[in-house]
Amino acid sequence: MKRTLTLILALSAASPLAHAQTTATLTLSSAVTRAVTQGVDVTTARANLQKAQANLRAVRADPTSLITTLTQAEQDVAAQTAALNAAKLGAAQAAVNGYVQAFEAAQRTALAQAQVNLSDRQLKIAQARLAARVATTLDVSRAQNALSGDRQDLANAQASLPVLEAALARTLNLPAGTDLRLGAPGDAPKLSVTLAALQSGLDKRLPALVQAANGVAFATLQVNLADNDYTPARTLEDARTALQNAARGLEDGTRGAQTGVRDAYRAAQDAQARVSVAREAAANAQSALRNAQARLKAGTAAAVEVQQAQLQAQQAELGVQQASGSVWRALAALGVAAGQDVTGLVN
């Protein structure tokens, strides 16, 4: 997917005092790119890493630096590197979730409008049938109630769209009031990496496990430094106890993280499997629509039946979009759980 972000600035001519309004034309890829480069959390994490790197350079340049000070500086860089990676993956997940939700909200609004149009037509038909004395006032009342409910659904869909778009704009650190133009997210990539590969090396990628691994390494250093004939035996004993505690903490954290990766992996597999089901339903709906159109042409179906078939086809297409969106969200969640991008959207 082309990673582009086009920002179009337009001045409103409604008033000489009107402010410039920003329009952001986005793809899912460009939205994630912006999130992982300009997101607030990512910017903060990047600054923290640069600070840690500067400190490490200073410690290495100082010939009087103790081994413990050097080790802590090196470990801080490792921890901040993992934190930056996690911040990018978290920003990507937020962008994916926000983008998919906003795009699907626009599709639901269009579907709700189509439903209102059909219900309005069905009400007119009921009224005409009542006038022809082949329907009752109850039939008209039911049609009116259905239309009223559909109009309320449309109003709710229309109201939710700007809220979701504003939330996405905040996630992408775009100016308030930005008019978003969202392209279709497209198909998510197939999950090609194995579960074992994602579960391996978590202590190098996940910030909590990196911290725990650093704790084990530093505790090991403390044991080595205390294991001599000039350090009190109690100090060595305490260092060994600290090492055992740190090792247990790392082991427990690793097991929990591996479980989280496994669950996220299975969720991604399930989401991908459901796309095929949704596409089959959409193909069936399109076939039904073609049949309705053929019957209309042959004079054996009414126009409202074609409109109903069109609405059902539109609903099925939304189902495909929602299934595909679920895959994107599941892959983003898996990336966060594993500390490794599997969406192909994060640099």
UniProtKB/TrEMBL annotation:
Keywords: Cell outer membrane, Coiled coil, Membrane, Signal, Transmembrane, Transmembrane beta strand. This is Transporter. It is found in: Cell outer membrane. Residues 1-20 form the signal peptide. It comes from the Bacteria. Residues 268-295 form a coiled coil.
